[in-house]
Structures are given as structure tokens and as C-alpha cells.
Write a structure and sequence with these properties.
The protein is α+β, with helices and mostly antiparallel strands and about 140 residues long. It contains three helices and six strands. It starts with a strand and ends in a 6-residue tail after the last strand.
Length: about 140
């Protein structure tokens, strides 16, 4: 099984890095580790642990809810936009299926997007430019001016 990391950062591109993951449970921990490793050289002022947690939740959702007839992958990309960090998670699922739920205390699942909503400055879901769905979050003031 192969995974791919793209840490290329061009002077004209706000993209800091990207990773392509197989839709397996092991990919969640890989996403956390790789994000920490590849964001470190950019010296963010935001909580990398909070960002890794949100990435974990969105990659988990992508794996659980992504669907395709052919073999597919989960794509994670992160961007610097001024002083903000934007992270996108792409999967082949349907954008209309992304829902912020309010689970009961006894519910075992359903808190991932709620965590993202609480931690991130903003989040968005919709059609992915790669096909399927993208769910993204923004952390404002992720870098010092």
C-alpha cells in the first residue's frame, strides 16, 4: 500500500503541502503525523495539535462517508492565506451528506464536525474541485504578521 506526500511549496502558490491517503483507518493517524511533520518548517503560531485533531476528524468522516464505485483516495491539502491556515479534506462522497449533528451524551458517534465547528474560526463543505466533496476549516492568525 502506498501513500503520497507533496510538500512542494512554490513561491506563487499558497499551498504548503498535501497528502493522498487510502480510505483505511490507519490513514487517520498518518494524516496527523504527516501534517505535524510537514507544517513544522512553516513555524505556525496556532495550535498544531488542534489542527491535527480537526484533520483526524475530517479524514475519519471522509473514510466513513466517502463512496465510489472505483478505488478511491482521501486528499488533504493545507494552504497559507495571509495569516490564516486553511485545510481541505476531499473525498468522493456527496456534498449534501455533510451535516453538523448534535449528538446526545449517550451517542457513540457524531462529534467530529462539532469539534471542528468549535475549534476552527470557520469551516465549509461543498463540491470538491477534484470531484465529490470537500470539507475545509480555517484557523485565523495561524502565523505572526
Amino acid at each position: 500500500m502506498t501513500y503520497r506526500i507533496d510538500s512542494y511549496h512554490g513561491a506563487d502558490s499558497p499551498r504548503l503541502g498535501a497528502m493522498t491517503l487510502h480510505p483505511t483507518p490507519e490513514s487517520v493517524s498518518l494524516a496527523r503525523r504527516w501534517f505535524r511533520k510537514f507544517i513544522a518548517p512553516f513555524d505556525p503560531a496556532c495550535s498544531v495539535d488542534d489542527c491535527a485533531l480537526m484533520i483526524s476528524e475530517l479524514v475519519t468522516n471522509a473514510i466513513v462517508y466517502g463512496r465510489a464505485d472505483d478505488p478511491w483516495v482521501v486528499r488533504v491539502e493545507w494552504f497559507r492565506e495571509g495569516t490564516s491556515l486553511r485545510v481541505e479534506v476531499h473525498n468522493p462522497g456527496f456534498p449534501a451528506n455533510v451535516q453538523l449533528r448534535r449528538p446526545d451524551a449517550s451517542d457513540a458517534h457524531g462529534r467530529g464536525l462539532l469539534l471542528v465547528d468549535y475549534i476552527a474560526d470557520s469551516w465549509h463543505s461543498g463540491p470538491s474541485r477534484l470531484g465529490g466533496t470537500v470539507v475545509s476549516f480555517v484557523v485565523a492568525d495561524a502565523w505572526k504578521v
